[in-house]
């Protein structure tokens, strides 16, 4: 029976780790190849990409003399990786109101980040929410999201409200999906 020596195991594990890292980077590079320069992250490395499935929530509000319009209120989504739920994403909440320009992500390991929109570009279809580059403003925990400095929202589907806004105070939930790419400085 031929058994590998103890010295070859660390080398094999190192090679496997290098291959995995290269595969993740190649996948992220392909995913980001179509990103507009306006939302490109200028420095750092993509450390994780999670798919999100959720809803964009709108509220019918009076907007000056224009009458009633749908206004973004908040969003909520499940973060998914390899078919497993790894966290959640939602809008930033403040006392008395929700700020739709602030996003939060929580990983199941307890780490989390909060970010604000830095740049936006239109999505491919008019009923898809925009693609975004977000600047991280705070973080907590030392898990998977530790060290994240920027986040991109790409590959969006749905999430844009349509139809009349007839009654102030009404809500409408619109399904959406997106991919979120989490970046860390080198």
SSE blueprint and pairings:
Layout: H1 8-32, E1 45-62, E2 68-81, E3 84-94, E4 97-107, E5 112-121, E6 131-140, E7 148-158, E8 171-184
Antiparallel strand pairs: 1-2, 1-8, 2-3, 3-4, 4-5, 5-6, 6-7, 7-8
Describe this structure in words.
A hairpin with a 2-residue loop joins β2 (68-81) and β3. The chain has an eight-stranded antiparallel barrel with strand order 1-2-3-4-5-6-7-8. Helix content is 13%, strand content 53%. It has two domains: 1-33, no CATH class; 36-184, no CATH class. It contains one helix and eight strands. The longest helix has 25 residues, at 8-32. It has 186 residues and is mainly beta.
Please tag this protein with its features.
8 strands; 2 domains; 186 residues; single chain; 13% helix; eight-stranded antiparallel beta barrel; mainly beta; globular
């Amino acid at each position: 029976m031929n058994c590998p020596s103890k010295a070859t195991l660390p080398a094999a594990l190192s090679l496997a780790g290098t291959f995995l890292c290269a595969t993740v980077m190649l996948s992220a590079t392909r995913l980001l190849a179509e990103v507009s320069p306006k939302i490109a992250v200028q420095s750092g490395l993509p450390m994780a990409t999670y798919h999100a499935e959720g809803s964009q929530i709108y509220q019918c509000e009076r907007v000056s003399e224009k009458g009633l319009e749908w206004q973004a209120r908040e969003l909520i989504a499940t973060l998914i990786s390899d078919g497993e739920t790894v966290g959640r994403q939602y809008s930033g909440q403040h006392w008395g109101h929700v700020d739709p320009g602030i996003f939060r992500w929580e990983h199941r390991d307890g780490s989390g980040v909060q970010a604000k929109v830095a740049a936006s570009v239109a999505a491919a279809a008019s009923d898809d929410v925009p693609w975004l580059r977000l600047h991280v403003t705070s973080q907590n925990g030392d898990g998977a999201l530790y060290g994240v400095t920027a986040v991109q929202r790409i590959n969006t589907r749905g999430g844009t409200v349509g139809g009349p806004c007839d009654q102030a105070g009404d809500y409408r939930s619109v399904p959406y999906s997106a991919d979120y790419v989490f970046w860390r400085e080198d």
